[in-house]
Amino acid sequence: MTLSELYQQIEGDYEQAMRVLRMEKLLDKYVKKFPDTGVIDALLRSQHSGDANAIFETAHAAKGVCANLGLVKLAALSSTVADEFRPGHARAMSDAELADTFCAIKELYGKTLDGIRCYTMS
Fold this sequence. Notes:
- 77% of the residues lie in helices and 0% in strands.
- By secondary structure, it is mainly alpha-helical.
- It is elongated.
C-alpha cells in the first residue's frame, strides 16, 4: 500500500498533508507516529470528564494534529467539538448531537488506526 492509497482508505487529504510537510518521507514518518500521539484518545476520554475546558483543550489539540496530517474529517469533527466548548461561547449542540459527534470521531479514528496498521505492515 502506498501512502496515497492509505489516505484514500482513511478518507484523508494526501495533498493537504504534503502541502504542510512537503516531503513524503516526513509524512510517512508522522502518519506512522499518529497512533502514539494519543490526541484522539485524550479527546475521547475528555468526553466523560464533564470538564468543558479539558474537552476544549483536547479537541483543539486534536484538530491541529489532524489538520497537519491531512486527516481532514477527524480535524473537522474535532473542530466542531472545540467550537462547542470554546471559552466564552454558549453551547449550541444538544447532548445527543454531541454524543453523535464523539461517536463519529471514535468510528473514524478506528478506521484511521486500522489503515495505518495495514500501511505499516505493507
